[in-house]
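Lab notebook page, bench 4
Experiment: in silico fold of construct C2
Operator: M.H.
Input chain length: 327 residues
Purpose: comparison with the prior construct
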Amino acid sequence: MIERLSDIGERELLNRIQKFMPSGQINDDTAEINPKNQKLLLNNDLLVEDIHFNEITASPQDIGWKAVTSNFSDLASSGVDKIIGITVGLVVPPNTKWTWVKGVYEGMKEALDRYGGDLLGGDCSNGAQKILSITAIGTLGKLRLHQSNALPGDYIIASGPHGLSRLGLALLKSDPILEKVKLKSSMKEQAILIHQRPKPPLEALETIRSCKPQDISWRAAATDSSDGLLEAIKNLCKQSKCQAHIDAESIPRGNFWPKGKPWDDWCINGGEDFELVISLPPSWAKAVLKSLPNSYLIGYMKEGKENIVWRNIEKLNINTSSHFKHF
């Protein structure tokens, strides 16, 4: 018999969900956390059915994993030290199968077991569309990253290659455009994995912290590239009132990444790459480039209008005014 939420009801749903939490966690309407006088970082992200996920491109476990790791990516881009946990807002139609909900929470638990933190509680409701709203909480480390901290003279670094998540989506949807190019099977497998099971850049953050030269301050600017590399750079420019000078030949395409359309577009506008885009003083940036595998120097910050100035733009097959859109 297929159990649906309309059959088991809210109380039984909560009884089943609580096994993914510490004992007694949902006995009250609030959760207590003890950060030991440390500053906290909080982030909230939404995953909406048919916008961020569907049954064709992701299993329930994949959805739960991505709901957690996308939030942890934002915490990493602000300088998180330790993950405390998450709260979950779940909206689902009454005819949703219990096995779908169970799979989502299994995926969230997998991510928490991997990166730290507990499932602290949340709420659930009937709705016309499946929605996951995750609030993630962590403690602030000694490196506080703000998008507004960039200065002229900084190097701009990407912590890894871009475009693979968008390629993974295209593969899962059997996009006919892929018939025009031959890709290595290893790249296909990697792209699907990155799209379905993204990793937050917590290890990259730790490497960046450990590389700081002793003779400079902890000033650095960062964001993540969940909305695309181009949008991330634009945000750093806008918030820091700097101008980014980017070489089109230096965008982080990764090994064996094809050039041309749509590949350049997927690289800088594909979204959901969850890499750090960070603006650092030159000596710190050089240390990071030596210590962080697969990192890329993509440009420099200079004084000027808050936009991007492209070098070798004729070699970039894309409209650089386009970007990932939420609406």
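Observations: The chain has two domains: 5-27+34-140, 147-315. The radius of gyration is 21 Å.
Next step: discuss at group meeting.
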